[in-house]
# Entry
Amino acid sequence: MDNWTLPTDEITLIFSLFFDDTLISCQVINTSRGDSDFRKTIIAKTGSGNKWVIKLADNDFTFSDKIKVWQRTVSEYLALGYYCPKIICDKTGGFPVVEYNGHKCVAYAEEYSLYDSIEDRRTGESDRVEPISDSIKNDIWSMTAKVAAKRFDYTEYPSAYCLFEKFCPSDKYDEVLENALNWKECADTLPKEFSGQVQRIWRLWTDNRDALEKVYKKLPTSVFQADLNPTNILVDKDGRFVGIYDFNLCGKDVFLNYLMRENYDDFEAELKSICSALKISSEYYHFSDIEKDTALMLYRCLKPLWYTRVERLKKLKGNNAAIEAFLDQTEYYLTANIDFKAYME
# Structure
């Protein structure tokens, strides 16, 4: 980006809470997700030539104690040998609440990344994002397995991938249940000839979820970054994986839940990706018997009624043959005896 501008008085004041250097220009990036999730990222350039990042948030999942957890998690990833820009407190050692654009925002600073994200590495004039290579995927799962093996337990705040609990106070359901309810709402509008199968699929899903809930809290946990996507995965000039940033969805999670949630595609590609991630992870992480026994239940809870399936089902309306095939596929993956254990040894 080249859209550097002179800083406003508001931004200059906020910057001065963290740094003594002179702010000469900045970029403001809007990362908000609606009125209830106001977020801005400020890239600051100083008179000494340094760059810093200041992040502002007005939502119900960003507050001082949470940011301290993100800060600790960054340090743990660094200790494992992975690059992450450090999160920086203000001059008093805290994370202040500031006024910005009519919002009361919690503010924190970060080091400016030494590396680009995969998304930032554009190719040619097409502006196409480079895909994540198999080599980088392997490195990512090696990293994540090492984090899981540490069994970090310094927080009870859940990651954004939490299951059977809400991430934000404003959430009505956890995301998995919300997606499933959206699937059911959409499926109930299909022609009557599909109602029997829709009810059967819904019963399979709810029975499986109920069974999973009884054992889920027994599964091992750690604290993860919880947002592995091309905008947050960092690579060097040769395209090699070096680390990650953006820890604002970070928190405690069940490793299997995190692993499966970070893999999504069409059914067959998704399943192949999950099995690959399990196999790579097993080189650095010992899967317990309860994890091996629960993997299939967790997969059935997370994947067949995921939001991508809801969007697909909506697009098939009016094509009864395609709907029938899609529902058959959904029911198959809710009942198939997938041997995840073979990849967890």
